[in-house]
Amino acid sequence: MLAVSSLPRVQLLCARHAVNVGTSSQVNRVVNRCRTALSIQAHTSRTRRFASLVNRDSSAAAQASEAETSNCATGSSSTVFNDLVLSDAQRRTIYALSTPPGKAGVAVVRISGPDALEVRLQMVRTPSKAARRKRNPEPWRLERCSIVDPDSNEVLDDGLVVFFKGPKSFTTEDVVELHLHSGRAIISSVLTVLSRLPFCRPAELGEFTRRAFEGGRLDLTQVEGLKDLIDAETEVQRKSALRAAGGATRAVFDGLRGEILMCLSLCEAAIDFGEEDSVEDSVLVKAWQLGEKLRERMVSILTDDRRGEILRSGVRLTIFGPPNAGKSSLLNFLAQREAAIVTHIPGTTRDILELSLDIGGLPVIVADTAGLRKTTDVVESIGVDRAKKAIESSDVSLLVLSLPDTVKPGSEELNVPPSIQPLITPETFVLFNKVDLLPEATVQRLREHAKKQLQIPNIWTTSLASKIGTGEFLSGFSQALQERYNLLEAQNTSEPPLITHARHRKHLETALLHLEAFLALPMDELVFAAEELRYAAQAVGKISGVIDSEDVLDVIFREFCIGK
Fold it and tell me: What does the radius of gyration of the chain's CA atoms come to, in whole angstroms?
């Protein structure tokens, strides 16, 4: 008795009814009688589907048993096929709404898989009779159509249909797109009809893109770039994601991997053909020289101050300071709306409030925190602890102080609260608020004195209530952020940050470790050296999702005339 999981479809049907394996002649009789039973039920779409499966797999059913003949020859054979339900693995055709749900001008329902044309045949009615008679429509051409329920012939909507013939489609499969009016009732009715088709199933999250990856349309860096492009909220994020989705990141990593494989091919040639005249002694020196250049290139890519990750996910900025200094007012100013509650009562903000903002074209995740002070209030003390943790984990911290409350009476010395002093570093940005309460000349003197006392170059003065100095602060703060992470340089050069995900960095660091291990080995340890290079190539290959040991052989035969 064969394992059920290894049987083709026809054998699987009989195996479900406890049928043993028989001879080839018995199988032919089974298949013929099954065809007869199926043709009787051909008036339904489900029976037509199973009939095509039997036709495809009849040549593979060479091991059915005599008991199969008796079972399928009975009048109940058609009932057997009608009662069977295809599993998700067998239903390769998937569908989903590809546009956001809700009221809009157009909604797009995408269908991809081997039976996409069958869906079109059953649900689409075009005005042209000639086009209606064609089972294979003209690809990549939008056609006006009526979308109908195949069971009742009720018209669900008047829309457009387009067919993308595989492999020249996003998923590399046959794809049909239905362009509908985006109303909830219309979308629901079309998806309901699709769910009743026995050979279709709803797509899983990201399944269309996964099929594009499995079909070779995209690699992992392009998949990530496509996701980042959809999520992009700023111009910097859009440019970075578009570059990755277009294959620029893949090209760089493929180039690195190709050079590692070249080193490996040189070592493999020395191991396998070292005693032949066709392989020179200098190949090992060339391998180590190439490995050293690769190491320098990887170190250069990795020492980027996480610019790529920051561009993609955003700079984490924490606003902190004493109560009533203007932290929540600053958040509202940056957000251009009343995002936080502002009152004259100290301790109004008790928890962390985060917003994703675009500051000077940069994605910034701004966190407003509780005022830092000693308190006996249990809730407020929890907020103060959370504020301190947020400051420690942030990329950038911005201290907001009330300038009139910070200056010591009768002097220009700053009186920074003791609870805040340990949190100030040379990288901290400082904003003095409420400068409208002091003379302008005094404000300028205090600002210069604060730079010397706090040893902090980036200090601004403003009045968030009267908007004095807010424009200067915003432009200066944006430029300071860009300079800190070399983002201006990244935007103006032809080689912006390459690493945009932590996964990229992890695999590239692993590859660098193996490459450095290769360079540390003596040249007579070729077997171990080749193994380190193989691990390095695998680590880089994991970034783009391409790992193939046959690549080493391809490089060897292309670069060396071994056979002559």
Answer: 34
DSSP state of 408: P
pLDDT at 491 over 60: no
- Provide DSSP, 178-238: EEEEE-HHHHHHHHHHHHHSTTEEEPPTTHHHHHHHHTTS--HHHHHHHHHHHH--SHHHH
- Asked if residue 550 has pLDDT above 70, the reply is no
Please give the residue range of the domain that contains residue 536. Answer: 226-304+499-559
Mind spelling out the 3-state secondary structure of 410-434?
Answer: CCCCECCCCCCHHHCCCCCEEEEEC
**What is d(CA 219, CA 216) in angstroms, rounded to the nearest whole number?**
7
Same domain, 366 and 467: yes
Q: What CA–CA distance (Å, rounded) separates 46 from 91? A: 12
Token pair for residue 192?
Answer: 């309901």
Residues contacting residue 284 through CB under 8 Å, at least 6 positions apart: 266, 267, 270, 523, 526
Placement of tokens 């009526």 in the chain: 146
Domain count, the chain: 3
Task: Mark whether 114 and 199 lie in a shared domain.
Answer: yes
Show which of 430, 462, 490 is a domain's final residue.
Answer: 490
pLDDT digits (tens, 9 = 90+) for 23-71: 444 444 444 444 444 443 443 444 444 434 434 443 333 344 344 444 4
Contact 116, 174 (CB under 8 A): yes
318 backbone dihedrals φ, ψ, rounded to 5°: -115, 125
Does one domain contain both 411 and 453? yes
Place of tokens 């903000």: 349
Is-above-0.90 flag for pTM? no
291 shares its domain with 326: no
Are residue 394 and residue 440 in the same domain, yes or no? yes
More confident residue, 119 or 304: 119
CATH code at position 328: 3.40.50.300
Tokens of 147: 């979308």
Same domain for 470 and 517: no
